[in-house]
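Practice problem. Given the sequence and the SMILES for 2-acetamido-2-deoxy-beta-D-glucopyranose, write out the predicted structure.
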Amino acid sequence: MPLGPRMAPPPPLAGVVVVAAAAAVLLLLPNAAVSRTLLSLDDFGAVGDGVANDTQALVDAWSAACATGDRTFLHVPAVRTYLIWPVTLAGPCREEIKLFVSGTIVAPESPDDWPHGGRGEWLHFHGVTDLAVTGGGVIDGRGHRWWARACKTKHSATQNCTAQAAPKALHFENCQGISVKGITLQNSQQSHLTFTRCSHVKANYLRITSPEDSPDTTGVHVVSSRNVHIMDDLIATGHDCVSIVGNSTDVRLRAISCGPGHGISIGGLGENRSYHRVEKIKMDTLFISNTENGVRVKTIQGGCGTARKVKFGDILMKNVKNPIVIDQQHSSSNEFPCTSKNGSSVTVGEISYMDITGTSASERAVTFACSDAAPCSRLSLENVNITMAGGRNASAYCHQAFGRSIGVVVPDSCLAKEDFLRLPVATAAGHRSAGEDDR
Ligand SMILES: *[C@@H]1O[C@H](CO)[C@@H](O)[C@H](O)[C@H]1NC(C)=O
Ligand SMILES: *[C@@H]1O[C@H](CO)[C@@H](O)[C@H](O)[C@H]1NC(C)=O
Ligand SMILES: *[C@@H]1O[C@H](CO)[C@@H](O)[C@H](O)[C@H]1NC(C)=O
Ligand SMILES: *[C@@H]1O[C@H](CO)[C@@H](O)[C@H](O)[C@H]1NC(C)=O
Ligand SMILES: *[C@@H]1O[C@H](CO)[C@@H](O)[C@H](O)[C@H]1NC(C)=O
Ligand SMILES: *[C@@H]1O[C@H](CO)[C@@H](O)[C@H](O)[C@H]1NC(C)=O
Ligand SMILES: *[C@@H]1O[C@H](CO)[C@@H](O)[C@H](O)[C@H]1NC(C)=O
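Answer key:
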């Protein structure tokens, strides 16, 4: 459904209104000279009663939006509920698109209603550049029946369970310039919001919620992406609040309320003998409560790659079972390590923990369980004070963990001094370099 070229007045199409510069006031666009096209999902035949299949309407609306040479605003109207089957909305599109989700988008409830051999995703955006998803509405995966048949769920042993992965709810793949802002994502079948091989991403002002016992319902999952900002979000799910894997760099987290769930995780890295490289990660102003982990770096033996230049700062933990964790001792069922040379593993280094306070739900507040094959290097603890919830002293555990502590560190640091003969000298500059995208 391509629209007319820019110079000619567009033909009178149902649901298409070209608005002049005056609309800039409404929509905060800096460049008032660019005209814009406003579309509504309802004009493409959507019913919005939560029962009718509105998938084709969304596909048609997307095609129309994608084909205009204008900035396009596609509205999913408020109050109504649109039932959408698994769909891939592909780019590239001719101009920037804003998808205004003001109403509710829901998935089919029963896994049996999903097409067989589906690719494990629900709302899948592929190869799109310059897309903003916003509008104050709700994207609801209605995942309860998926969770019930997940093999991880308690009680499922007695029932039939399926090892087939549940779908990712909102998945952006090979995308650039994506902003997901000011909406609610809830009850996803699996991870709520996933970015795979994307760059220049923002995930801000989001409310992401699922029950505490829902399996694999990660909040934001970052896979091989760069320049990702995740800020001002509330995340309370059954799995990681945020997880970062693959070849990811320049990821920034700020002002996140996390919990319940499994906390913030870099990894697991190196699954199935794969190569993962996660670096230049900076997180601050995190409020983590009632979670399994606080901030964790986890690697899997047999994989290779590295996790380095990570800064965790200004974190308040409440009742977190494992507040600070590096876990390199997770073995996998890999037959062979990913390189033929000797037990290669994912190396962990240049990780700093600064201004972290609060309470641990378990006695061991700090765990640096590094591998013999590749000890953790250049770890740094500065102004860390974590006590047990009841006020008792917590403890720290180190295995093959090297680094330094500065200022108050409670429980006492157990890091071994760097072996400067073997490793390059850690410099102050080196520790700062993780914050290149500091704002
Ligand atoms: C819903 O509509 C889409 C697009 O037309 C179609 O592919 C899908 O099979 C439909 N689902 C059902 C259950 O009818
Ligand atoms: C398990 O699956 C079998 C075969 O599909 C079916 O006959 C049985 O009723 C199922 N049991 C439960 C508890 O769902
Ligand atoms: C990371 O990059 C390396 C080298 O480019 C590649 O071999 C590897 O498959 C990538 N890993 C992932 C998880 O994409
Ligand atoms: C690793 O391999 C197993 C078995 O083939 C598969 O189920 C799993 O999804 C793989 N994991 C990743 C991250 O590719
Ligand atoms: C393999 O590992 C062993 C024990 O860690 C070590 O002695 C040996 O030098 C390693 N070989 C290579 C080629 O790295
Ligand atoms: C650590 O925190 C506890 C609880 O807030 C506090 O009582 C204690 O004085 C702090 N310790 C240091 C050394 O600051
Ligand atoms: C708790 O730690 C403080 C400071 O490290 C120490 O003075 C105190 O004796 C410890 N208390 C117990 C019960 O171990």
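Check your answer against the key. The radius of gyration is 23 Å.
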